[in-house]
# Entry
Amino acid sequence: MRYLIKKIKFGVNIGANVIPCNAGEGVRRTQERGQSGLHALTTFTLAMTGGLITVKNSSTYQLIHFKKSAFTLAEVLITIGIIGVVAAITFPMLMTKINNYVLARQYKKALSTINQGLKMVYEQTDKIHACYYPVLTENYANEECNELFRELRNVWKVSHVCNSNAYASGCIPKYKGKDTIEKENCTTDCENAGTQVGCRGFDQEKILNGSAIVLMDGTIIGPYNGIFYYPIFYIDINGTKGPNKWGYDVFAMTLYGNETSLYAKAGACTMSDKSGRSNGY
# Structure
């Protein structure tokens, strides 16, 4: 800490000098100063008490206030305001990136669970079920698909199954369907939105009234058209936990393959809510 002390000699101001000292300490100094060829000797004592400095020499006493260095209230408030504005701008973007990262990991995990199950079914049954594109199209129900999903229940870690009325039975949250999404996303000529031919097996009523499989980790797997007779299904990668929106945590999946292997990925009848990722992460 440094204090500015005015030196007084016989009541006359003869200049200024900066004297370093520690709070609460007394400092005794002797200084010689040349002036007009003469040497004047000034001896003084410095003491500090309660924010005052007492300078004492042989002939005078003087009290001098010293100023402590600190931030003003206005400066503190302005700084806090700037920090708040920056946080308000960056925090939502940061949270979006974190959520997308988490959902991407859950998507990959759910897809891995499905494909591992397909592989295990093949190893256990030594059979490739004819439930995949390009062998089938969405218009053809197939008993092979029903058999395949029954086998998958045996290798997946299943919590519970709803054979019908999945929403009313508590297996699934209230998802939107292809019809409701088409109506919401429509901007022009919306009279027939949600009724066009194609992928109607994912309309809301068929999803809510259909069957569903719930895995131990919360992943939900539901069939196209309400029954597991098609190589198309949907997955909710984090179960009943939100947002439960297509293209965010709910995705349409399709089985592809050949005579030696089966695998699932985003394919036929994909859809998404606004700004969603219809083809997954």
Notes: Residues 1-63 have pLDDT under 50 and may be disordered. The longest strand covers residues 38-49. The chain has four helices and twelve strands.
